[in-house]
Amino acid sequence: MIVTIWRHGEAGSAPSDKQRELTDKGFDDVGFGCRQFHHALEARGMPSPDLLLYSPWVRTRETADIIASAFTHAPSRELEALRPGSSVQRVESALVQLAKPEANPDSDTLLPTHVVLVSHQPLVSQLVDYFMDTAGAVPPLSPGAFVTFELSTPARACGELRFWAVPPEYQAGV
């Protein structure tokens, strides 16, 4: 399974953290990031996302909506395990469930091959460090940044880095 962990785009202020919306820069960065992401996948012969999961907070939903508009064949849905304050173990459990054929009755392929997870700091960087077991191999994800890796199984230290990118240029690095 290929996993891309994407931090939500730049967000403005709001009466509560939950309600913060993307700024114009956040929308622009994520939109450009989607184009660069598509090119990076294509250059590496990797599949496009076939599932998008996001935190229930406004800025992650907006980020996921932008990604979903760039990859229209990938369904998207909220995942409580991606909200702020959640744990790596909750996300790992969700990925384990996704890897079971019976968990995906509506999918043509049954199992997703490329899942995008849209969430918040510090969880996004904790997930990268956990699955790749290489603390610091990828810099902490700034707003709008993403990292793509391949998981042989959804468990600690089973990920292999493919590429990562940060705004504003989104030049894919390894």
Would you mind describing this structure in some detail?
It is a single chain. By secondary structure, the chain is an alpha/beta fold. The protein has a single domain, classed as Phosphoglycerate mutase-like (Rossmann fold), CATH 3.40.50.1240. The chain contains four helices and six strands, in the order βαβαβαβαββ. The chain has helices at 24-43, 58-70, 88-98, 123-132; strands at 2-7, 51-54, 76-78, 114-119, 146-151, 159-165. A six-stranded mixed beta sheet has the order 3-2-4-1-5-6, with helices on both faces. The chain is globular, with a radius of gyration of 15 Å. The protein starts with a strand and ends in a 9-residue tail after the last strand.
The end-to-end distance, rounded to whole angstroms, is 18 Å
User: Which architecture would the CATH scheme give at its second level?
Assistant: 3-Layer(aba) Sandwich
Low-confidence stretches: none
CATH superfamily: Phosphoglycerate mutase-like
**Can you list the strand order of the major beta sheet?**
3-2-4-1-5-6
CATH third-level topology: Rossmann fold
Largest sheet: 6 strands, mixed
Provide the domain count: 1
Number of strands: 6
Classify the helix fraction into a percent range.
25-40%
Percentage of residues in DSSP E strands: 15-25%
CATH class: Alpha Beta
Helix-strand pattern: EHEHEHEHEE
Tally of helical runs: 4
Structure classification: alpha/beta
Question: Roughly how many Å is the radius of gyration?
Answer: 15 Å
Rounded average pLDDT: 92
Instruction: Based on Cα principal axes, name the global outline.
Output: globular
